[in-house]
Amino acid sequence: MKKRNWLVWVCLIVVLAAFWGWRERKFIERYPPENPAWNGEALGTFYSVKLVGSRLTNEGLERLKTAIDAEFEAVERSMSVFREDSDISIFNRAPVNASVPVDKEFAGLLKRALEISDMTGGAFDPTVGPLVELWGFGRDGRHAHTPTDERIQAVRGKTGWQKLSVSKDGVLTKNLDGLMLDLGAIAKGYVVDRLAVAIRGAGIGNFMVEVGGEVYASGRNSTGLAWKIGVDSPLLNAAPGKRLVGIVSLSDRAVATSGNYRNFFKGENGTLYSHIIDPRTGFPVQMRQTGVSVIASDCATADALATALFVLGEKDGLALIDKIDGVEALFVISGYGVCFREATSSGFYETVNYEHLDSKGQTL
Ligand code: AMP
Ligand code: MG
Known about the structure:
Layout: H1 2-30, E1 37-42, E2 45-51, H2 58-79, H3 87-93, E3 100-101, H4 104-119, H5 129-134, H6 149-156, E4 164-166, E5 171-174, H7 187-201, E6 207-211, E7 214-218, E8 227-232, E9 244-250, E10 253-259, E11 264-266, E12 272-278, E13 283-286, E14 290-296, H8 299-322, E15 328-334, E16 340-344, H9 348-351, E17 353-356
Antiparallel strand pairs: 1-2, 2-6, 3-5, 4-5, 6-7, 7-10, 8-9, 9-17, 10-14, 11-12, 12-13, 14-15, 15-16
Helix pairs in contact: 2-7, 4-8, 7-8
The chain binds adenosine monophosphate and magnesium ion.
Magnesium ion binds near residues 185, 258, 303, 304 and 306.
């Protein structure tokens, strides 16, 4: 009797263990890792997404990935100058005073872009595209020689954010012949914001999303702390993340960076011409190797302001940021060798958790 009892128990344990193993396997099959991360290419750049504590099933994760691809596709369809059939290309080809209807997202972004043009005294100008092309930073990506002054002024005459109007119902009109749109200085940040909405919509509160170096960090990372985002040294052509000057800890905020250390050309006299154009002169901004990072509650604003600050320079740029609530900025300007000088908006150190690193990447 006792022996039979013992046998029953063994059988029961074996059955339970088998059931447990089967359930675990089913669970693993159904659920991806708790902190899934992936990256890819879109909008001519790289992107990455990291989720923390996600309770998504495999199907849920696949749905989210599809939703993210759909966001990229929607942004390309309306804002890519590389697509002949995009809304932006249709607008760029349209004659003066023609009405070009666009979707409400595109119209909303343009309104925001024009607000930032106004706020920055035109340092950020989404109509600067023809000058970008003239200086050889355009669609074909080739670097041109310095154009003549007459040519620069003639092309500059075809730009001007005030010559663009967006009606309430999303109709765009150019009031100047040849006016074109280039949203390259705000689009990456804008798409980051759209991806953040899609990820939140999937019920995830802790995540980080990055498109071409522009970042939004939500909630906490996998160690339960704010997300740590590296600030690159403005070293010519250094790969992103290779050499950092500091680390920003972010939670529910965005950071975007503009600089002249990746996309530039050197003139005959060694001057560094950046791909960012000063709309007031028609010339590329000429500065020492510099990076400007802007922190804001949304990434489109951070992105556009980073470009504007690059145009305005340290003094005027930081004075502007000091007047805008909830936005901070950090300039990293090259000195000699690998030494860099940092200059910040007045609330930067108080409101941003920033860890400065020495030239070997050690915390000071
Ligand atoms: P970002 O890398 O965000 O600073 O954006 C730079 C891109 O924005 C350039 O490649 C141009 O396409 C465009 N751009 C250049 N200068 C300006 C400007 N002053 N305002 C707005 N967009 C600009
Ligand atoms: Mg920008």
